[in-house]
Amino acid sequence: MTKKCLGCGVILQDNNELIEGYVSDLSNDYCRRCFRMKNYGDYEVVLKSNEEYIDILKKIGNTRSLVLYVVDLLSVPFDLEKIREYLPNNNIIVILNKRDALPLSIKDEKIIDYFNEKYKSFLKFIVISASKNYNLDKLMKLIKEYRTNQNVFVVGNTNAGKSTLINAIINNYSIEKSDITISPMPSTTLNTIKMKIKDFYLIDTPGLVDYGNILNKVTKDRIKRISPKKEIKPKTYQIKVGQALIIDDIIRIDYLEGEKNSFTVFMSNDLKIKRINGKRHDYLKDLSRKDLSLRYHEDIVINGLGFVKTILEGKVAVYIDKDVDVFVRKSLI
Description:
By secondary structure, the chain is α+β, with helices and mostly antiparallel strands. It has helices at 32-40, 50-61, 108-118, 136-146, 162-173, 220-226, and strands spanning 66-72, 92-97, 124-127, 151-156, 193-197, 200-204, 235-239, 243-247, 251-257, 261-266, 273-277, 288-294, 298-302, 306-310, 314-320, 326-330.
């Protein structure tokens, strides 16, 4: 009989130390990777293709079960509705997670109105903070109202907070205990994990790897600094043509064209930001350059890092790792 790791869902095995799921003793409840992550903060990279994860999503698509789609508010995918390719017939509640990272002055209703206006294929949007238990009661009422059978699936990109959410639900609404492995690193959950919650089952799934996310391109120490630990304190800079912003040696944004503009940075408080004379300094210009045109009230989104809110029309050049997605959108806030 196969046994799954309680932390990441992978099938446990004691035959090969180099393969995921290894344990020295099959009586253990956690694979060596999860044990070391939980107890020592070590992270072992596991490379898995999205094809395996997509196969899981397609199987969910055949069930017509309710799906909870967890999205990081600081890393909203460019094409949020792409998930519909794999889940065309499921009712989907989009969970806008990590509310605690955004300033409290921003109203939930304004965030939800933004998404309702832009996306029409989802059942509901709800703003939560899984780590702070914010709006969990409201979420549970939605699950009770809209679930179609005993199974409720939780999906989303890596590091969106799926496992944190499931742990919070179990700890608050179930007599069972949960200890799913939580980490700021990508690809923590490796297989499905099924847990009983009152009169239904909550099923965690592996996160889809977003290859354009900056978390896949930086060191473990930098990932911890990029991931906000508390409410973000936005930093606003008045930028003229010829000036640039340097963000923690990761990204450079040059203002190429337009009137004096306001750039408000919504990113981790641990990141260092400085304004420089772009004409005098070539720092970070060896990175890949991406030119963007800005319309009124748009965000420059750096996948996995956060976003920069601008006010006026203009043009910018963004220097960053060539594989990191950067795009503009109508201002979220």
